Each structure stands twice: as C-alpha cells, then as structure tokens.
Input
Amino acid sequence: MQRTTRIAALLLTASLLLTATAAVAQSDATDRAIDKECHRIGHKLGSVSVRQCLRAQFRDSGGRSVTGQPILEKIIPSRSQPARGRILLIGGTHGDEYSAVSIVFRWLKMFHRYHADQFEWHVVPLLNPDGLLLHRPSVRMNEHGVDLNRNMPTPDWQQRTRAYWKRHHFDPRRYPGTAPLSEPETRWLYNEMRTFKPHAIVSIHAPYGVLDFDGPPRGPRHVGRLHLHLIGTYPGSLGNSAGVQHQIPVITVELPYAGIMPSHRETRRMWRDLNRWLDTHVPKPETLEAHARFDAITEQLMPHPPIKTIGITP
Ligand SMILES: [Zn+2]
Output
C-alpha cells in the first residue's frame, strides 16, 4: 500500500514538473515572439526604437495575426481605487498608417499626465502586425487581404458590406472578408470588447486629419487640432460595431499624415484633450446598460453562424 502511494506521489511530481517545464518553454517562446516583433517594429518605424518597444514590456494578449505574430498589449492599472473607468486604446488597425502606431508609443510616455492614470487602460499599439511588418511597403489589410475595419459585426453584414464594397468598385483595400469576424485579429478585438468591457475606445488612424465619433452622444469637439467631423457609419467598422451597436463611445482619431508624426506639442495637446473628455464623459449609462446585454446584442448581429462556431471563447 505504502509502495503504491510512493509511486503515485512520484508520478504526480513528475507530471507537475513536466507541466511546469512546458509552461516555462511556452512563456520563453512567447517572450521571444514579443522580442522579435519589437525588433521588427523598431526597424520599421522611424519614431519608435527597438529599445523603446522592449521597455514598454508588452504582454502577450493571446491574440495572433494570420501568420501567428502576437497582438501586443499593455495593461496599465488605475492608480485610483476603484478605477474611474476602463479605456481601450488601439493603434495600427491599418498596416500602412505608420503614425497611428507611433503615436501610441509617444502617449505611453505620458501616462502619468492629465489624470490618465485614474483609468485602467488596455493599450494595443498594433492590431494588424502582418500589414505593417511583413510587407515593403506596408499594406492596409491583414494577410488575408481583409480590411479589419470592415470585418466587425454590424447589422445585415453580408448584404451591407457587399453593397458598400461594390460602391467602392470592389477596391481590394476595402475588402470586408467572407463573414463578420472571419479574421483572427478582429476575433481577438471583439473578444477583448466582450471581456474587458471598455467604457470608451480610442482608435487611431490616418491620414484624414479629423476626429470621428460613434456611440452614445456626444464626442469631443476637438482633440488637439483635429475637429469633430462625423464621417458616418460603415458596415463592418469598429465605430459601427462597438459604438452604435454596443454603445461603447468610439473616438476615432484620424491623424493628418500616415508617414509624418504630429509635433511633440501637438501630441501632448491631443493626449490632454482626450483625457479631459474621458474624465467628464465616461462611463455613460447607455454603455453600462449595453455591456450587460453584450451577448444578446452579438446574437442579433450574428444570428448565422452562432457565436460558438466563429471561435469566440468566453
Ligand atoms: Zn485607417
């Protein structure tokens, strides 16, 4: 009996050791993948160094691009208890909008300013790593050729994205994909909305030089020199999906140039204005109410196929 117990204990220890070794190996592999991506980012963007990216200590969000590159994320906890709110900041949805990635790195240096630290932040500098890092020059779409900002679930997705794409003469840069959330990057983003339940989303693009807003009224009148100019909602866009359907305010910052960064002064002013608006406008009651109905709204948006078959994990 004693011998059997000893053997069982030995087997258990061996299995725990194996599990621990596998976990270490996996985390080493993840660290290497993050390092590699930081090197690629630093070599691609004039305004971001490899060191700066490594120092930011991004974690693996669990999200992957089509080719398996990690979607980097930094979680910045709030200094106030409880947090004033939760904010999701997203750069680089379109791979060829370089400034929309670089500015996130600049803002990461300013997190102690303008009361930004009263919020909990999830910061995603580059949603579309394949578009930015695997091509020369970089491309707008992901590795399947899909415009990620047309692949989010919105009402009557099939008909409306198709009609929209036709109006744009089937421009390959605006290909919405075969189904809502057909892409690993959008699946990760949507799941992040579902689990983090942000009270506002700040999404950075270029080069239209305006500020757009979707969601429960109203958006900031200006952020730095960018003035509010409602562009309208597109089928499959983040503004439509998160802002209109899920009632999460989405501030879309369209920087004036894809390849030229705003000045340091302007970058700071933008950060100040964003945080001033967040300070006085979130969380909105409409957002809290819609958070509680997240899955019900999803089912309305995607009755076919149901949630499980498109790979959203709880
Ligand atoms: Zn864009």
Observations:
- The longest helix spans residues 2-44.
